[in-house]
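FIELD: query
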Amino acid sequence: MSELRTLQPLVILGPTASGKTRLAVQLAKEWKGEIVSVDSRQVYRGMTIGTGKDLAEYEDIPYHLIDIVDAGTAYNLAEFQRDFREKFIEINNRQKRPVLCGGTGLYLEAVLKNHQYTMVPNDFNLRIELESLTDEALQKRFLTLNSTYHSVADLSTRKRTIRAIEIAEYLQQNPLQSRPELELNPLVIGLNPPVEVRRNRITNRLKERLETGMIEEVQGLLNRGIPKDRLIYYGLEYKFITEYLEGKWTHELLFERLNVAIHQYAKRQMTFFRKMERDGLVIHWLEGSAEENLVHARKLIKENGE
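FIELD: result
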């Protein structure tokens, strides 16, 4: 199997409002880098404020996988992996350093591990059948399947167990064709500010975004004909603001509910990153100020042979 070699990529991950973009841009400036966004919602055009693209921060640093499909378009993880692979190779061919930046753990894990199972199509008839089973029965059913997916499957939730069964059963009849692996071997830096700092940043950022056009952004998407169900599907800001525009929430309740939801999301992000660590990914966690994190990140890069 041929391998695609590159300068050692950097990965900057962390929960929302942890300062990922700022650090990624600073490191890209110093180490001939280009940013690759690994975020499940920043791919959509027209969803700028709510997804925190902060495009002004990039200055003259090239960035990729932002604003690549129209909001409302169906776009999935397998397509993201395809697009990531294409951009990664392009950056490599330019002899630039890929700097992956994002907080969508599932997308990060998929590209770092070169997962091919995301290409397995959905089997809605099978899902209907599986929904009638208990959690214990689902686990047993998965374990009876002889599949190459066993070693990497995530059975931590009912939804993921059903997807694991779907993949395992598909693979029994449809072996996936292997593809050349991207030899990433990344240096992974995680930002984990103290909880109180993170909470204050999330709350203050939400106030600022609500005051500077986030509600108008969602209204504009609705005016363009994007179905409300699709916006609700995108979650968080787009879900709650769509419901606010429908009259479900007062402005005060919108802020309170959305603020809580974003804090909960940040906790889920950290849970996923810790899972990635348990699965073998080495993450160098930084917990200081932006200036301290930059100093430590530079040191880590130099210690890793740069």
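FIELD: remark
The radius of gyration is 20 Å.
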